[in-house]
Amino acid sequence: MTGPIEERGRTGKDAAGVIRGPSGMRRPEGAGRRWTMAGLVLLCLLTGVTLLAGYANKARCTGPEFNEWGRSVPAFQERAYGQACYSDIQKLWIGREIDRHMFPYVHGGITEEGDLYGGVVEYPVLTGMLMWAGAMFVDTDAGFLAASALLLAPFGMATAWWLGRLSGRRALLWALGPPLVLYAFHNWDLAVVACATAAVFTVHRRAGGSLRGRSVFAAVLLGLGAAFKVYPGMFVLPLLLYVLTGGRGGAELPAGVRRFDVRGAAGVAGASMATVAAVNLPFALVGFEGWRASFEFQAQRRVDLSTNSIWYWGFRPYSDTEAFQQIVGVVSPLLVLASFALACLLGWRRRARTGTFPWIQVSAAMLCGFLLLHKVHSPQYTLWLLPFFALVSVRWGWIVAYLVADAMMGIGIFRWMYLITTGQATGIHDGFTAQAVMIGVWGRAALLVGLFVAFLATRSSVDDDEELSTPHDRRLVGGRPAVPSG
């Protein structure tokens, strides 16, 4: 008699309730619950509704009248802070020559005081191009917000589609997540999140091709993401290690390669670097000073209230001193790199047990290290983390706790700035606003530490990235066992 797993090759549960595929291999949470085509369309429609809510949230700050520069009046800043509808998109309409439709980077630079001029913006070049395109046919900050939302919304819905294909129902965390309402149009981050998600999709869902070919394509996408915002570039390292060790269970090594696919790993590194260079080189050649100024601005950026990092909140009042600024400028990046190394090391140790280098989980842990230890932690960075809540099957308690802490920070910080702007009491004992900020700052920091560990200890929800935990399982994939790491 056949058991529930072997019967007709269907997916089923064993006596312990563990989901297994036709081969009897373990399947991660979410496997077998993929969306149909109609379901994927519905998922994208739900995302569209959430994006509309996100736009409406930010559009509350626009109008009703505009001054000679196209800035919303009256009391733009007080309304943006007081109603918690602030967005960098609307704010940067003035001050970066966007309102003058100046092509970015080519004509400008940075002053000795650290101020940008001549169309330079503080972001990598592809984000600068998005900003320029969004301003092309408008003459107010309200028009700029609306046009930018139209440019960014397709990236948000594409991310939902890819997450639905990858993670099944967990993609609803993206489609209906509060961060999409709070931050979708806070900055230009939807484009970079789409690039990072597309890279995972390419490795694990793209039909046909070898692991080498799929991963090189994914590396190109990560390179494009780095040309929007830098963070997808960090995921090249775990992807490289995944390819080096032969992918799932070590079973995707090319013919003739017995242990490590050095050539495939080099291809991943080379493709990502070549993409970044190809995108940046024209700007560097045409306007080197303007191109360099965007990087110089970020290097010089001080730890202050606008950065929202633990370095500002944890070391007050010393964080206002020049000596502290110089120290954190060195210590912060070193600690970020140390967190990357730790995540990769723990991922390598996990590979020794399971046969698969968990590149998605390691990427998620690296992002946690970056968010915690970098000197800047802008509110919209939560959008970077949100897809990993779908891609990795961390417990729901982690997710709910993080979203609550994030909302307290994301809303509380602007209410707190409103109190400062209007000269009201801002002490921790003066009301819930300051308390919410502190809960958000330190709750979020503690949760990032916990999530760093949780991501590395949890299965991916991408079913063809499941771990092959026994030699028998490994022989079922590609006909070859993983090579022990020694």
Automatic annotation (TrEMBL):
Spans traversing the lipid bilayer: 35-56, 116-137, 144-163, 216-244, 323-345, 357-376, 396-420, 432-457
Basic and acidic residues bias: start-end ranges: 1-13
The protein, known as: Membrane protein
Keywords for the protein's UniProt record, in alphabetical order: Membrane, Transmembrane, Transmembrane helix
Annotated Gene Ontology cellular component terms: membrane
GO terms classed as biological process: GPI anchor biosynthetic process
Source organism per UniProt: Haloactinomyces albus
GO terms assigned for molecular function: alpha-1,4-mannosyltransferase activity; GPI mannosyltransferase activity
Stretches the record annotates as Disordered: 1-30, 465-486
One Pfam family from the record: Mannosyl_trans
Keyword Nucleotide-binding annotated: no
